[in-house]
Amino acid sequence: ATCVHGCKYGECTGPNKCKCFPGFTGKTCNQDLNECGLKPRPCEHRCMNTHGSYKCYCLNGYMLMPDGTCASSRTCAMVNCQYGCEEVKGHVQCLCPSGGLQLGPNGRTCIDIDECSTGKAVCLYNRRCVNTFGSFYCKCQLGYELKYTSGRYNCVDVNECVTNRHRCNLHAECLNTQGSFQCKCKQGYQGSGFDCA
């Protein structure tokens, strides 16, 4: 089975047919599936879509149960949490629906943790970290694209000279480099490669 355009977050199962990993959709499995928009809804109260997944949380005055449902709680209602709460031995604590969020100074609202700047996120070689609200994902560095090669996904150098993504002068040659390209004026011409005279 070969998929000309590849399957970004999935497997190639037939000629140009992709089987997407859970949480992804599209012809080449390159789009995040918004589980919060599915019917039936996956969460009882509120739903937060994340890259490849989702998180459930409850309205104020309710506690999030292990099965994703919300149970009414008088104590929670009094604390006024942004995303629901849990009671441990009579002590009420506000919850954040993701490990990428932390309780703010007021102990009730959740603020984003930038995993990319704190160094909590580890991205493989040739990948850069992109922070999202409550999470992060790794994206190929500029000049690289995600391709399925040798049974796994790798960030492979884009040959800008072949894809015509270069801006070399008409009288210049394009030379591909790792993650980028260079322009060199042809014989009899001088200049930067972008400008040749």
TrEMBL record:
It is found in: Secreted, Extracellular space, Extracellular matrix. Keywords: Calcium, Cell adhesion, Developmental protein, Differentiation, Disulfide bond, EGF-like domain, Extracellular matrix, Repeat, Secreted, Signal. InterPro entries: EGF (IPR000742), EGF-like_Ca-bd_dom (IPR001881), EGF-type_Asp/Asn_hydroxyl_site (IPR000152), EGF_Ca-bd_CS (IPR018097), Growth_fac_rcpt_cys_sf (IPR009030), Nephronectin_domain (IPR052235), NOTCH1_EGF-like (IPR049883). It comes from the Eukaryota. Residues 32-71, 112-150, 157-195 form the EGF-like domain. Its main location: secreted. GO terms for biological process: cell adhesion; cell differentiation. Belongs to the nephronectin family. This is EGFL6 protein. GO terms for molecular function: calcium ion binding.
